Amino acid sequence: MPLSDLEKMRVEKIHRLRAEGIEPYPGRANRTHTALQATRLFEETETNPGSDGIHVTLAGRIRAVRTMGKIAFAHIEDGSGRIQLFLRVNEIGEENMKHFTNDFDLGDFIEAQGTMVRTRTGEISLLVQSFRMLAKAVTPLPAAKDEIVDGQVVRHATLSDPETRYRQRYADLAVNADVREIFRTRTAIIRALRRFLDERDFIEVETPILQPLYGGAAARPFTTFHNQLKQDLYLRISFELYLKRLLVGMFEGVYEIGRDFRNEGVDFKHNPEFTQLEFYWAYADYLKVMTLTEEMICFVCDEVFGSRIFTYDGHQIDVNPPWKRLDLRQGLIEVVGIDIQKHPTTESLADAMQASGLAVNPDASRGRLIDSLLGDYLEPTLIQPTFLYDYPRDISPLAKSKPGDPTMVERFEGFIGGMELCNAFTELNDPLDQEARFLEMRQEYTEDEELRHPMDEDYLQAMKYGMPPNGGFGMGVDRLTMLLTGQHSIREVLLFPPLREREE
Known about the structure:
Elements: H1 5-19, H2 35-45, E1 55-68, E2 71-78, E3 81-88, H3 89-92, H4 94-103, E4 109-118, E5 124-135, E6 144-149, E7 152-157, H5 162-167, H6 169-175, H7 177-198, E8 203-204, E9 210-211, E10 223-226, E11 231-235, H8 240-248, E12 253-261, E13 273-282, H9 286-304, E14 309-312, E15 315-318, E16 324-327, H10 328-336, H11 346-355, H12 366-378, E17 386-392, E18 401-402, E19 405-416, E20 419-426, H13 431-444, H14 457-464, E21 470-476, H15 477-485
Parallel strand pairs: 3-5, 8-12, 16-17
Antiparallel strand pairs: 1-2, 1-4, 2-3, 4-5, 6-7, 9-11, 10-11, 12-13, 13-21, 14-15, 17-19, 18-19, 19-20, 20-21
């Protein structure tokens, strides 16, 4: 890749420094404190008359430089924040001041040793006694520009184009502190989810990512070929069938947080690979899982934000329990005026939809038509936390039937901000019923072979040994992060979202 003129100038500096015996990429750093630690330590001792000064060594990226003859000021940034360096000829000498002025650029990493002081303007700073380069930045980072708005200085990062930000996430993170905060929050959310489940005696496990059969959902898999085994393998689309095998093995609560992969479309809330939390809980049903879900989301909000109220898409969301419970059938009656119980066949439901002026896919099954009614019309209305419960068996092939009504199953989905957050069942544990459901699923998706759920003989064998009644749960961690950080695209909460290759 050809270098720009600015990059060529910086490369020349690298060569010159090495010719002078200065290594611009040394192998060791000697930092003693972060910027935040040094600032807090100075504040604690500033009023102590017996203190003889705080001596520290800091390191970070140069974000701003201002030279004024025999003195210079520079702001550096590390993972904890920013701090000012105060350089004076009196402390470092003229040669070192010339070295700093000529050889250091914005974006370079610097190590500086000195004493913490407060300048005449009141800013806590490091009065530098010595410094050295830790890493020379060849490519200048996108600069920030200041704009006066209502008399206040507002700083805007020039790296704002979404596609460039996603393709060069490293530069996005380097210049946009708010983006770094999103991913710190994401990590805190995952940590809180783990802590919640660990404290309730769930065991975190790892299940295969490469699987000889894909299952647990109706989704198109990614396929690869194992040369040694000489067989096709699939990236998992769900953890479900492996986690439930562990219930047969006498684990009573298991969970996994990891990646699922589905070779399907991309939009603001879907990505080919996404992070999923799934747990399975012996001797529980979907009603107990509902309660646990409320408790878990509240725990995360308490731990990460200290509040159970947040704003998403202009709506103030309150996750305090109890969440609204709404029967799916009743919800569709209220929104589109169609009672799905009165339309037990695909033809009848399609006719009712057409009579109401709703779009109908002529190739869709009854289950898919119900799914479209839910996704297109009901889901956008579910702003406050809502459990939509009791689903038709047509769209829930792995859930346990409701007592007395084999056409309905014990399933719920949780919605917040007009978006599906989680999905849960009272799980099917009858191996004979499960085998029949697998066969039904193969008939359901006859038009698309890859969507037809394979018959998993090993899973059926596991069930035949006896599986305890249990409740299962799945939640998109990316979606939870979107909600809690106010983001409206899943790409904003993925460090490296997949993008189409650029055409040269």
